[in-house]
Amino acid sequence: MRASESFAFPELVARGEVHFASTFAGTLAYHLDNGLPITALAGIHAGCYELFAHEPVRTISDLRGRSVAVQELNSDGHHYLSIMAAYVGLDPQRDFNWVTSPDGNPMKLFAEKKVDAFLAFPPEPQELRARKLGRVIISTVQDKPWSQYLCCALYGGRDFVQSHPVATKRYLRALLKAADYCAEEPRLVAQQLTGMGLSRFDYALQTLSEIQYRGWREYDPEDTMRFYALRLHEAGMIKSEPKRIIAEGTDWRFLDELKRELKA
């Protein structure tokens, strides 16, 4: 799923039009705060976004009063960058000039230097680096604290998860085994993506080699939800305390079972 699409899926899952999906964990916290009947089930990997900026910007604090391109407000990129801003004491609702892309291509705005910064999602970081556009000021693959938490999370409709536990577990098993496959055979996966016309081979291989696809085995999804929910709460973007988000919007039973079953 591309980051530009993910903000719409929680509503589809909540309505039962889609049973499962994945999105940024902070986006899940945002929608759970708004009362959507969805349930976070697992994290899948850590690290994928990179924050690019043009000179003279060197840190996220330097973006105060500057323009930042996003797909749409309340998209994954908007939520993630808001969290990054709040973490260093900025007010994302006042300190940034958020610019949305009318043609759905915020990277183009950045490439044309119409904005100062852009939070890129694969294969955008690979393309920007290849074209030598801007500089990376935050890498969620390498930079703490972002590299210490899961990025993308798997979730389902609350009623469906409760009513169909077997299907829910099968969905999680398939996605988590796919994540393991990406970690074990990045070159083969890159070839498959290239064959389907989804990416250039070099971009796909770089992405698959960098992203921590075994993160679902090593990271605690509850810590991830707590961290992002707290940051959103501090930024004034959600009202709920992290404890409520976790209590009402998460179910880790299936993940715990699969960690035992797929231990290898």
Topology:
Layout (H helix, E strand, L loop, with lengths): L2 H4 L2 H7 L4 E5 H9 L4 E8 L4 E4 L13 E4 L5 H12 L9 E4 L5 H6 L5 E4 L3 H7 L4 E5 L12 E6 H6 L1 H20 L1 H10 L5 H10 L4 H4 L2 H14 L7 H8 L3 H9 L3
Parallel strand pairs: 4-5, 4-6
Antiparallel strand pairs: 1-8, 2-8, 3-6, 3-7
Helix pairs in contact: 3-12, 4-12, 9-10, 12-13
N- to C-terminal distance: 27 Å
**Biggest sheet details:** 5 strands, mixed
The helix/strand series, from N terminus to C terminus, equals HHEHEEEHEHEHEEHHHHHHHH
The tally of helices reads: 14
- What is the spatial order of strands in the main beta sheet? 5-4-6-3-7
The average pLDDT score comes to 91
Determine the strand fraction and express it as a percent band. 15-25%
CATH class of the largest domain: Alpha Beta
At the fourth level of CATH, the homologous superfamily of the largest domain is: Periplasmic binding protein-like II
Helix/strand-derived category reads: alpha/beta
CATH fold topology of the largest domain? D-Maltodextrin-Binding Protein, domain 2
Backbone shape? globular
Oligomer: single chain
The percentage helix is 40-55%
- Please count the beta strands (DSSP E, at least 2 residues each): 8
Spans of at least 5 consecutive residues with low confidence: 1-6
How much is the radius of gyration in Å?
18 Å
Count the domains.
2
Corresponding CATH architecture of the largest domain? 3-Layer(aba) Sandwich
Q: What features would you describe in this structure?
A:
With 264 residues, the protein is α/β, with parallel strands linked by helices. It folds into 2 domains: 3-46 and 149-261, D-Maltodextrin-Binding Protein, domain 2 (3-Layer(aba) Sandwich), CATH 3.40.190.10; 50-147, Periplasmic binding protein-like II (D-Maltodextrin-Binding Protein, domain 2). Helix content is 48%, strand content 15%. The chain has 14 helices and 8 strands. It has helices at 3-6, 9-15, 25-33, 76-87, 106-111, 124-130, 158-163, 165-184, 186-195, 201-210, 215-218, 221-234, 242-249, 253-261; strands at 20-24, 38-45, 50-53, 67-70, 97-100, 117-120, 135-139, 152-157. The strands form 2 sheets. The protein has a 5-stranded mixed sheet with strand order 5-4-6-3-7, sandwiched between helices. Strands 1-8-2 form a 3-stranded antiparallel sheet, sandwiched between helices. Helix 4 links the parallel strand 4 and strand 5. Helix 3 crosses helix 12 and helix 4 (76-87) crosses helix 12 (221-234). The model is unreliable at 1-6 (pLDDT under 50).
